[in-house]
What we know:
The chain is α/β, with parallel strands linked by helices. The chain has 15 helices and eight strands. The protein has an eight-stranded parallel β-sheet. The chain starts with 14 loop residues before the first helix and ends in a 7-residue tail after the last helix.
Amino acid sequence: MNKSSFSREGQVVTPEIQALPKAELHRHLELCMRPSTIRELAPQFGIELPDKESFQQRFVILEPMQDLGAVLNKFLDTQKLLASEEILERLAFEACEDAFKNENIHLLELRYAPTFIHQGHPHLSFAKIHSAICRGLDRARKQYPIEVGLICILQRILAYKDNELVTEFAIENADTFLGLDLADNEVGFDCKPFAPLFARAKAAGLGITVHSGEADVPEAAQYVRDAIECLGAERIGHGVQIYRDPEVMKLVKERGVTLELCPTSNWLTNAIPNLKEHPFKILMDSGLKVTINTDDPVIFNTDLNWEYQLLQRHLGLSLKELAECSEQARRSSFLTREN
Ligand SMILES: [Zn+2]
């Protein structure tokens, strides 16, 4: 099969999927800037985007990545744009507006890494970044009937002491952060040293979700086990590879851990060979709590409607099953849980 047939380019979503009320748990705020806003802002930062092609070439991944360097450059170009409080507020507001108006999302968890924005723009403190984002969310809540909350991301590629500062920041702002996450490539970056930080966050009432079991490597399922047993993960970002390991599947089921699955992301990062072979249905039919997510919608040229459409088209999920996945996302959300 031609790999491009999994791409959203030029494809339409059925009215039934569009009309389904949706909830999403796994979406990186830094990578949801509205394309028209990117094109408007980019020239200020020395990035000329005269047409759609130049925008796509610079900011979007349309085919499974061959070259990690090219992908990292797209992340760095996006980082360049997150340069002021005004822009961050706009980013947050527009992310919610687009989710509600375009995707019929009524409950949305957005996550971001304070360190990622701060590294690109050292004049922006964590406090300034966070307040600007919160202002954007507040504006959206006033204008649209959308429930929205934030997750704070630790980066496993950073030193413990840097992540400790971020954890303290998240705990100080536990009224505006729902949870704590650990992101970045886990191969070669063991999660276990961060266990004390996650224990502190949990004690402060934050929800715990961990990026794990994403890349197709032999240790993938073990990483998920570690995230659950050592970090107390209630949800796993991806976890897509555990279908090969019955013991870890059993653990995930027994603990009631929710999987935040992101099909297009998995295809574009080569976590799975193609969407027809995505183990979504295996995980769902095993009775695990599965949810559908976009991960990085703009850079992956997707949205939640399109993820639903792909699962219907390539894995045969019925509209009822898709609605159930959305309901599961609502039930597993840190916004709706009772403390
Ligand atoms: Zn992610």
